[in-house]
Amino acid sequence: MTTFPKVFSIKTTPKEILEKWYRLMTLGRAIDEKAPNYLKQAIGWSYHAPYAGHDGIQLAIGQTFEKEVDHIFMYYRDMLTALSCGMTAEEIILNGISKATDPTSGGRHMSNHYAKPAWNIHNVSSLTGNHTLHAVGVARAIKYYGKKAVAISVQGESSLSEGFVYEAINGASKEKLPVIFAIQDNGFGISVPKKDQTANRKVANNFTGFKNLLIIHCNGKDVFDSMNAMHEAKRHALETGMPVMVQANCIRIHSHSNSDRHELYRSEEERNYAQEYDPLFKFKRMLMRYERFTAEELEAIENEAKVELKEAHKLALKAPDPDPDTYLDFVLPEPYMPQKYIDGTHQEVGENKKLITALNETLKAEFRNNPDTFMWGQDMANKDKGGIFNVSKGLQQEFGPKRVFNAPIAEDFIVGTANGMSRYSEKIRIVIEGAEFADYFWPAMEQYVDSSHDYWRSNGKFTPNVTIRLASGGYIGGGLYHSQNIEGSLASIPGVRIVYPSFADDAAGLLRTAIRSRGLTMFMEPKALYNDPKAAAVIPDDFEVPFGKARIRRDGEDLVMITYGNTTHMCLEAAERLSQEGVSVEVIDLRSLIPLDKETILKSVKRIGKVLMVHEDKVHSGFGAEVTSMIMEEAFEYLDGPVRRVGSSFTPVGFHRSFERMILPNTDKIYNAAKEVLAF
Amino acid sequence: MNKTGIFYSFNSTKTAKAAEKIMSEFGSDFDIVPVNAEELTEVLFLSFTNLIMGVPTWFDGELPNYWDEFVPALEDLDLTGKTIAIFGLGNQIEYPENFGDAVGIMAEIVEKIGAKLVGQTSIDGYNFESSKAVSENKFLGLILDQETQAKLSKERIANWVDDLKAHFFM
Fold first, then answer.
1. What is the pTM of this model?
2. Which CATH code for domain B4-169?
3. Which positions in chain B touch A219 (Cβ < 8 Å)?
């Protein structure tokens, strides 16, 4: 028995509401049962996860959602939830058969992933529970802007096994956010039974220790129990601003999806048991038993649903297919374009500022410029400490703890809630310290990867406007967790800009451009240069550097060194030594890896003919491999010798200084490699 | 003599067998009328003075659908003067967190509307974590575990029926 008030009951709920519910449930089930036929007829819908058995709770979640006010994140089994939220049968089918007019993604995302961003029905990943962090992030915005609304994260019970779901619930509990975690428990994660997921059959009870979290159990197969549970959950979240978890016990009448055969792992008895408690039939029986509807009235509704489905089917089939030539659209949104410093250079004179000062002052300037700018991360703001390297020093004092604050030591939470919060409004800009050091960023990779394709996957309807700052690289004797470079690994993931400045002015200009731009930018900071005088530079107050514009830091004629980050300075030193031997070396500081300034690179390569690619990251599959290949493909005939690469060895960076010297590139290694290239 | 009925799903397997054993235990001297809970009406329910309800626990602690669908009707009845005993099947190994919950759920409903609940039993000999069927260290009815303690059911039924005879017929 649930203990919440019975607002809805078979005897007292107005007939027109019961009719609406039965119509939705009948229509939903009709589509659910028809969906596999599209695959059999080779029309599409190759992924379908039937919802039959979840009818009560899905109806209730949708009925609880207020479009354009609340925010909802559904999972791949939420077909009836989508209908109950107000989406049409046609929209459901358009998604199922991947049409250009599919409101979720125009055929780019998988079928059975329903979204309508204009109503705050968000486009979600297929990674189970991934959107839990997004719901928490958008709830942070709901709270900050004082909106009377809730965020609803809908998911299966198996998703609670994911560590990032724990992070999300912990965050909602800590920050006291109006999130409803609606857990549909059908006892299986594909074929994995609940007993293989957790010791507690009532999985929501694993979270009873969380402060500020109300946990409600309900029968997800029963319309009234589900409606009452969701009604109470929303009332509580709205009135208290606190999170609620609703665990709805459901049954899975069919297999996990159309590629699964549940008879391989479920007994006939168990399957019959589930079938016997078909929520739709139960609701129908109750409508008749309590004389709210006659059999004839219900049959009429069923017939109308069939007609509606038939019409929706016809319209969806006629809808256009996506244009495959648009496949390059929506990888990244158009960035902010600097108006004054078009190529990202300046002639300012004056006092040099350190790289760390450049970052700190630019952050402050952008926070003053845009009141909807936020920043959080690990060790970000505690009294006089502002970040592990003090990059964010003074920001919380000036802009307050609601805009600048510490995050839990949970990298995925930091990135995931940034994605979520930016969904609230296009005007919001978020800066995060993805981790204390780049080496610790890996736990956030599931959110990073997912965020990278939000723009493409949503057909351009959503992009997380987030700048991820990471203190990167070695030369500080930091060893395995304080000295790695990770940009080579990240560069193979489309949908994120990656910048890596070497000088204070470029750091300021790129950070300003990143914060003002739409989309996701990875901002790598060479931490060894934070306070190094050689990276200091004169910085115009309003300096901006466009993405994809390299900077020639030294002109030359005999050899071109292409580099970025820490090694820019080593290349400049090596170039200086070589100049004393009469060799003229050009040094190109890439500044942006993605997008890459191919024009500047190729122009120098074609003119000079000898190339040395230098970076701190590993040579093996490092970003230099991409640059080198590009040169081979587009300027081979201009080369006077093979392009050489200098970088780290294919090992971790060791802790002892002698290991570091052996593993990381330095001026001598660059000088020697340059001599070899020059010998051709 | 007051009319006595035993209410259970005729389509069930284990609950139906348990009901038959209970009727058999009463013996031919006692007239116990079997009633299909899936075809129950308020009038039929109220026509009995002594009621034995077979309420197995489904899933993670729920009433079976046939009882759940009757609850809205049941809640509006006045059961003053009725004596009710409840039995149900549960599985204490696989569902230790909600062992026999349905018995407790139904007991709460019928007591709330005036029925006198009889047939409480000891929790000794069972091993579970929690149950809505437990009140003051006793089960609110008879819980049978045919999955893990089938051998104990015969004696449990016999003892329970002895107790019910005293309540129903003396």
1. 0.96
2. 3.40.50.360
3. 62, 68
